Every structure is written in C-alpha cells, then in structure tokens.
Amino acid sequence: MPRRKLGAMNPVIATGEIEHAARRPAAEVGGAGAGPGGPSASRRLLGVLMLLTVSTGLIDAVSYLGLGHVFVANMTGNVVFLGFAFAGAQGFSIAASMVALGAFLVGAALAGRVSVALGRRWRQWLPVAAGAQMVLAGMAAIFSGTGALGAVGNGRFGLIAVLAAGTGIQNATVRKLAVPDITTTVLTLTLTGLAADSSLAGGTNPRVLRRVTAVVTMFAGALIGAVLVLHAGLTATLWVLTGVYAVITGGLLACRSSDPKLADRVAPVASTPTP
C-alpha cells in the first residue's frame, strides 16, 4: 500500500486557503514587510497615512473655527449640522454645509473615476491625489491671503468648496487603498474596534497600536490647527496645511519609488474598506 506523503494536501482545501489568504491584509499574511521594501517600507507608508490623519484634524480646525461651523473632511458632522440649521439653530448655515457636501462628492467622484480609468495601475494615483490636495490647499491660502476669498460672507463658500473637494479626493483614494483601521478622516469604527476587540470584551486587541495612533494623530492635528487658527490666523494655517500635504506627497512618492508594489502588501486585495 503506497504511503501518503506528509506534505500532501487536499487540492480543494489548499485552493480555499490560498484564496482566503489573498483576501487578508498583507500585514496579517506573512507580515507587512514581506518583499523588497522590507518592514521599514511598510512602516513608512503607514506613517504617511498617519500624517494624512493629522492633516484631517488640521483642516477641520480651519473650517470649523475659521469658516464658521462647517467641516470640510467630516461629512457626518455636516449632515448633522444641516439638521440643526433646518431646525433654526443659531450659528449653523444650510448653504455652508451644502457647499461642503457637494464639493466633497465632486472630489470623491473625480478620484473614483481616475482610479477606474487607471485599472490595475490605480495606486500610481496615490501621490497625485496628495499633490492635488496640496495644490488646492495652496490655492485656498492664496485666495485667503490676497482677500479674493475671505473667512466671512459669501467668499467663505469658495474656500469651503476648494478644501472639501480635496478631502473628497483623499477619502476616495484612502478608501480604495483600504488599509485596516486607517481611514484618515473618521474614527468611529476605529474607536469601536478598540473597545469591541479589547481584552475587556474578550478580544485579542488586534492592531491596537495602529488604532490608538490614529486617534492620537487626529487629536494632535485638531489641537495644532486650533492653536494656529486662533493665534496665527486663517491664511497662515492654510500655508501650514499646504506644507503638510507637500510632505505627504513626497512621502508617497518615496514609498512608490522604493517599492512600487508596497501598497499591494499593506492593503487588502479587495477594494472594499476593512472596518
């Protein structure tokens, strides 16, 4: 009777395991650092995404404190603000929230369209998207500094639109990348994961450092943005934001040049974001 090799495996089971592994984040399949870039390359990309999270806190401080109770990154907040405004609550603008929502959707649609057009090469869009945000933030700084668009009156709607279009591009691009627990703009699912997957809830605390870092970086961005808006002014803060986007763009370019397939290993294969 022929002996069965110990290494043999049912081909159906093997195929299922391979397909299951292909759908898992690269950070969970053999480590995020697998490949020519190594762990440092993966950490570099995650670091850039964390800096993008800082920029979200910064830009929402600009819009809420400098442009009048409106968000340009947190669209959930704008939907809530619309409800307040329709109810007649003081200090909230239907027009401002609608402009932010509309411009955000335009930016997201544009980024989605470009991603589809690029097909399998869509990750080339990552530094371009960050560069677009840098240009839009720079335009807002110039408009604010020259007085072409101000923080009060109808001029603020132009600044809101320019900034919200940029965050729409950011959200659509990061959503496509789908790195677990790093949306760069919202923390609800991240905080839920921290609690629901914690030891107190009977979980194993997966990616706890990444989740905590995301919360801390957005807080830091909001704190820095608030200090700048209150003490240095809107235009100066917009220039700082432009500089942050420039660093992010450079970081993404460096990640792509050092390891073109890095994003494929850090993020899941599927385009649907992982909570």
Describe this structure in words.
The chain has 275 residues and is mostly helical. The protein is globular, with a radius of gyration of 21 Å. Helix 2 packs antiparallel against helix 9. The protein is 68% helix and 0% strand.
CA-based shape: globular
**Count of individual helical segments:** 10
Percent strand:
under 5%
Radius of gyration: 21 Å
Helix content: 55-70%
What labels would you give this structure?
single chain; 275 residues; mainly alpha; 0% strand; disordered N terminus
Brief summary:
The protein is an all-alpha fold.
What's the arrangement of secondary structure elements?
Elements: H1 11-22, H2 38-66, H3 75-86, H4 94-118, H5 125-146, H6 155-177, H7 188-196, H8 208-231, H9 234-258, H10 262-266
Helix pairs in contact: 2-8, 2-9, 3-4, 4-6, 5-6, 5-9, 7-8, 8-9
